[in-house]
Amino acid sequence: MNEPVILAPSILAADPGRLADQMKQAARGGAAMWHLDVMDGHFVPNLSFGPHICAGLRRYTELPFDAHLMVDNPSRLIEPFITAGASSVVLHVELGDSVPIPQMLREIKAAGALPTVSLCPQTPPEAVGPYLPLVGRVLLMSVEPGYGGQPLLPGSLERVRALRAIIDRFDPGIQLQLDGGVTPENAGDMIRAGADVLIAGSAVFDAPDIEARCREFISLMKR
Ligand code: DX5
Ligand code: ZN
Hints:
Shape: globular
Structural class: alpha/beta
Bound molecules: D-xylitol-5-phosphate, zinc ion
Strand content: 15-25%
């Protein structure tokens, strides 16, 4: 909880034709990590991008990449994303026993990246329990996964508080990141409720001045 807070723009919302330029603007404004929304058209209906895009963008930034795997079969993407430059890899607990999540979290750690689990809005916060010994960060979805630009779901603030309390009972050093519908209007409340990392896509990249919007976010992200 005492680590600095982090603004992580989701590049899904950036203009694909001006991606590197828009990332430079966000970095100048204080963005400290890039969130990659990886979608396979199965786990979620939408389709986005794979490790190739991460590797290509690695040349334009020194900031860490966070790979959020919204896919049915994450095992075959872990190594390629870490090789492409991802510093953290996020797996969804909703996959349950269909894939060996604990084994994959150990594999992420062994490869030198930060193992992370994600919870969808309908998943009870307690579901994180079995994974806490294996993760460095937990991602809480505040929209249904699949699309950027959705409004933050009601009850998300209470879910941040509940999840923070569960995490703190195990290890307060585990970071909590919030993903979906984050705006300057709710950013401060989410940080004070216990989030350490805020992911924001459309609120960053749809802004008329991306750099200024990131500065605004960071000025509001005070504990
Ligand atoms: C949703 C993604 C989010 C989302 C963030 O499936 O995981 O990262 O795109 O974008 P905004 O901030 O537009 O909700
Ligand atoms: Zn995401």
